[in-house]
């Protein structure tokens, strides 16, 4: 029987739970470095090879420099703290395998067809881990948990703001009418670029919509009255956007995240989830007419008649076979980040094949082991109910939805193995799960002498 834990008595943790604490954490130097990493999204090392001749080119030049600056400053922050009286707290346990992957990817750049560009992406990946470490570093586990929570909120807020920017840029061209209905597929072809930045693909836009969809879906279950209706409207709007983008990985991941939320949010939510699942099975397999054309819905999700491809994986199995053949040429040593683009001129669309190409067999093992550790922490937290005892159960459910989504997305896309939005959302979630476990152990150690 698990003992009931009381909230950590640490005063800094209580203060940092307030909005002022969140703002103070976001505006700290490590917090600004994290925002600098987000600002570098869609940048390219190619920008650094040319001398900027306009204000816009200078902006992109400095954006591309952002990860390298963040890596250097973040490392200096950690070195300065390590030399102080309190020292620096260890890197969250769950992120150590991914830090090993980053080191191997940096070393593998020596064999890349384009070592300078590969090294840029490898260092950018390392910068995300170093900056996160500087953000969550604190003397006590309770304070680290609060800082990790703030970092998640900051990342979600930036992701939501990015979604609004994308919707504004693609206004009037986001959707087209097709034989199967309204579709957002091909938006990257309709909206060529904005301010020198290429429009993201439909799967990327769907990914950006999933984050607020899951966040507001959980808040809707935790709210009442008008506030619940507002959160439901936001969740419904973002979920509709995901479906209309016709990204099958994002749609499946969104469904898995919502299903996990219903499992974790109490008996009533589980009853509702079970009822919805039963109705879906009846509609799909019993042929009951509820006013929904299920065949058209399936064709819509599969993008039949739109993408020009008839296979379910949209050519991914073919690309995976090509990548596997290349991996077998050097299974133990990789070729650095972006090796798929350097060798094949296409994206491999699989997290573990990409990691193997980039960092060899030990790199992909490290990345996969980090995912396993993440889920072990999550299952452990479900069993001991530490998040509820520490009054962070809502955040726990939201993070669970997020990691479920990115775990599923990691099969048809690359999630966590390369520098990008997925990494900047996954790292804070993983760090928070680790800090939650450490806070539970810290609180148990405080209560044991009293017992």
Mean pLDDT, all residues: 85
Q: Widest sheet: strand order?
A: 1-2
The major sheet is characterized as: 2 strands, antiparallel
Q: Helicity range of the residues?
A: 55-70%
Number of helices: 19
How big is the Rg? 22 Å
Task: Note poorly predicted spans.
Answer: 1-17
- Tell me the distance between the termini: 15 Å
Q: Tell me how many strands there are.
A: 4
Tell me the structural class.
mainly alpha
What amount of the residues lies in strands? under 5%
- Oligomer designation: single chain
Order of helices and strands: HHHHHHHEEHEEHHHHHHHHHHH
In words, what does this structure look like?
- The structure is a single chain.
- Residues 1-17 have low confidence and may be disordered.
- The chain is mainly α.
- The strands form two sheets. The chain has a two-stranded antiparallel sheet.
- The chain has helices spanning 11-16, 19-26, 29-39, 55-82, 96-108, 115-136, 141-169, 187-190, 202-222, 225-244, 248-264, 267-285, 294-301, 316-329, 339-344, 351-384, 386-389, 393-409, 421-450; strands spanning 176-178, 181-183, 193-194, 197-198.
- Helix 5 packs antiparallel against helix 16 (351-384), helix 14 (316-329) crosses helix 16 (351-384) and helix 18 (393-409) packs antiparallel against helix 19 (421-450).
